[in-house]
């Protein structure tokens, strides 16, 4: 798949989601294709892709998406049936879209998959909704944990100490304030601690 760049950081290139989300496991067949011919193509695809079952998209003579055909429908159909009789609407997304917009489309349409198309409406990939939503949940969970730990979203492991301080200074100030509070509390009970030294063991708590 072809990758593109855009000046606007809000634009998200679907290909960067990775192969676990954006898959190339699909077949494009002509609208006049017979079921028996499609079945042969599916069998050949599975042999060359370690048994992966492809999605079947129906295209016109200019390779533009017309719809898709569910696998269950293909199995029940007669061999000489044309795929145009089994066609259903396919939900499409452009090959460049924001992450948030992509999730919105998946939730709104409630489709089991989204067809990724290029500027010519030609299928270039498929996104299964369950994979996309799992990705969104994982990303949201990771963001929450980073925020709780005081880690800035721009921070990287290779950043130097000055960068880390600049990105975390609010949390560092808060940590300093709580440390001073602890010191102040300990001084209030200094005499008690000096008489019962065992209490010093519980100070970290």
Q: How is this structure best described in words?
A:
It is a single chain. The protein is of the alpha/beta class and about 200 residues long. It is about 40% helix and about 15% strand. A four-stranded mixed beta sheet has the order 1-7-6-5. Strands 2-3-4 form a three-stranded mixed beta sheet. Strand 2, helix 1 and strand 3 (about 55-60) form a beta-alpha-beta unit.
Q: Biggest β-sheet: count, sense, barrel? A: 4 strands, mixed
Q: Kindly, what is the distance between the CA atoms of the first and last residues, rounded to a whole number of angstroms?
A: 55 Å
**Which blocks of ≥5 consecutive residues have pLDDT under 50?**
1-11
What value does the Rg take, in angstroms? 28 Å
Share of helical residues: 40-55%
Q: What's the average pLDDT? A: 77
Topology, number of strands: 7
Total count of helical runs of at least 4 residues: 6
Percent of sequence in beta strands: 15-25%
Which sequence of strands runs across the widest sheet?
Answer: 1-7-6-5
Characterize the overall form: elongated
Structural class: alpha/beta
How are helices and strands ordered from N to C?
Answer: EEHEEHEHEEHHH
